[in-house]
Amino acid sequence: MHIPFCDSKCHYCAFNSYTTKFNLKKEYMKALNKQLQHDLYKYCQNKKLETIFIGGGTPSTINPKYYEETFKILENYIDENTEITTESNPNSATRKWQKEMMNFGVNRISFGVQSFQENKLKELNRAHNANSAITAIQNASCIGFDSINCDIIYGFRTDTINNIKEDLLQAFSLPVTHLSAYSLTLEEGTKFFNKSEVKIDDEALSYEIFDFIEKNGFSQYEISNFAKDKRFQSKHNFGYWEHKEYLGVGAGAVGYINNRRYYPSKDLDEYIKNPISYEIEELSNEDIKVEKVLLGFRCILGVELSIFTQDELKRVEHLIKEEKIYIKDKKVYNKNFLLADEIALYILE
């Protein structure tokens, strides 16, 4: 479920988000609810949703009263086993906002912290400071969230292993149960695009960071994701990696049903006018296979052996001899997530 409003546009962000048009929030949520009702009726009759992820943009820029109708629509499709995550930013996820979202049934919260260093936050154009991030995470724990994620970005030009460790130690000192550590990427349409000087490409740094996170009690289960315990792993993420079907609700969201991706309009005004108009992309069996291989090697899921041709299996054998991958229970697993793309492309060449 995509909420496309933000207090500020981060210099690295390529998501569909707006720092203006706040006057459209009410109309937008009405349109989103219309699409949600339509998609649930069409695809999910007599089914329960395994997970819901409210992302953005910044979901915490929306007053909880506008989510009331959304959760009313959802009530017959969720139960106590549904993982319901909301993203939030420390400057807008007040204690009151968090509490009201929890009352709707949200049971997992993710904070876009990125760093606890004031200078880095300014240069990334984040709308919060270190203290507000610390307070927001503490508030989440105090009101009863036990599944709390903290996003950290690394690979910015001022980063050293020491100041990243400081960020991580600050996160570890808080009641955080899940950590997403992302390498900065320079994407088209962002302020940082074409500014290669803002990014550090240092593979050794990634290995050091991952090692440090693991030593502090968080197990890596995907290239960017670490959890304190298996129960804190994101079920929603696993849904994508396992190629499960999902609804994409909101301007700029993506859905995946019956081997087709569907895209509601990205344009806010267009979406509000007609939230159930979609662009459709048909995926071939080959497209699906490539995605399963790429995603399976990026995380602990692995890839079914049966998916590969005879020629591909020869290359699998070669990589086993090279000790890059291993086989267990008719699945191929990757030993090093940072090499996931290279391994996948080598096997599928």
TrEMBL record:
Pfam families according to UniProt: Radical_SAM
Any one GO cellular component localisation term in the record: cytoplasm
Location of the Radical SAM core domain: 1-222
Similarity field: Belongs to the anaerobic coproporphyrinogen-III oxidase family. HemW subfamily.
Organism: Halarcobacter mediterraneus
Protein name: Heme chaperone HemW
GO-annotated biological processes: porphyrin-containing compound biosynthetic process
CDD domains: Radical_SAM (cd01335)
Function as written in the Swiss-Prot or TrEMBL entry: Probably acts as a heme chaperone, transferring heme to an unknown acceptor. Binds one molecule of heme per monomer, possibly covalently. Binds 1 [4Fe-4S] cluster. The cluster is coordinated with 3 cysteines and an exchangeable S-adenosyl-L-methionine.
Keyword Translocase: no
